[in-house]
Structures are given as C-alpha cells and as structure tokens.
Amino acid sequence: MRGKKPGLDEFLKISEELRDKLLIVEGIRDEKALKSLGLNNIIKINRKPLYQVAEEAARAKSKEIVILTDFDREGRRLAARLSRLLGPYKIRINRRLRKKIMEFGKPEIQDLRTLKEDDLHVKVSTNFNKIRDKGKDKGQRCSGKT
Questions:
Q1: Burial tier of 26 (Cβ tally within 10 Å: 0-12, 13-18, 19+)
Q2: Residue 44: its H or E element
Q3: What is the pTM for the complete model shown?
Q4: Cα separation of 86 and 65, whole Å?
Q5: Can you give the pLDDT of all 146 residues of the chain as single tens digits?
Q6: CA angle at 10 for the pair 5 and 15, rounded to the nearest 5°
C-alpha cells in the first residue's frame, strides 16, 4: 500500500478498530470530527498540562490508547511527550493505528470528518466522467460524412 492512499473501505475498518479504544486529541474541533464518525471515548488536551491528560487517561482504565494529535511537528512532539508520561501507568499505546490514519494524507484530525465525503465524491465524479467521455468519443467516430 506504499505510495497509494488507502480507500474508504480501509478507513471504515480503522474507525471500527478505534471504537473500543481511548482516543487523545488536541482540541474541540478534533473531538467533534471524531464524534461525527461515531467515536465517543475521547479525551481532549485543549491547553491542559500534559501530566493532567496522562492522569485522566490512566483513570479511564482503558486497555489501549491511541494518541491522535495532529501530524505536524507540534502534534508529533505532543504525541511523544504523552507517550513518555503514560509509560509509568503501564497503558498500551497503539502507534499502528496512528500511522494508518496518517496514510490518509490529512494533516489534521479534524479533516478526517471530510474523508468519507471526499471519497464518495471522487467515486461519483469519476463514474460521471467515464460516461461523458464515452458519449464524446462516440460522437467523434460518427461524423455523418461518408
């Protein structure tokens, strides 16, 4: 799957996997985007000290945590610091799902909300272009001249 963005089916599989895990996001918009996808077990950082976020995650008593901070430099830095802070609590951090979500090419978690819509739009518009192109080609072949 290298070099190619995963499709809608892959996104639906990943979102199913995320349903039973605790998710840590940066802010309110990220939380709203994930809730619109049906994911509810979410802790938002939202300018809290990271040690408080780690304590809150430990109190949630979830078996696995997925840190879904944005994929920019600051987001990666936050994810690394949270991983270190969660270490003493012996909570498993699922980095595989974070990497899978990064493959969709969306720089921010809040952009995942549009992923379903974008994929559906691309499929419909692609099919429409195929139909339109067939008619255009057919018209050129039959010019009416003999």
A1: buried
A2: strand 42-44
A3: 0.75
A4: 10
A5: 455 667 888 888 999 999 999 999 999 999 999 999 899 999 999 999 999 999 999 999 888 999 999 999 999 999 999 999 999 998 899 999 999 999 988 889 988 887 665 544 444 444 444 444 445 555 555 555 55
A6: 120
Return the amino acid letter for 123. K
Query: How far from the centroid of its chain's Cα atoms is residue 131's Cα?
Result: 32
Domain count, the chain: 1
Q: Which residues lie closer than 8 Å to 100 by C-beta, 6 or more apart?
A: 6, 10, 14
CATH code of residue 136: 3.40.1360.10
Residue 117 corresponds to which tokens in the numbers above?
A: 């819509």
Does residue 26 fall inside a structural domain?
yes
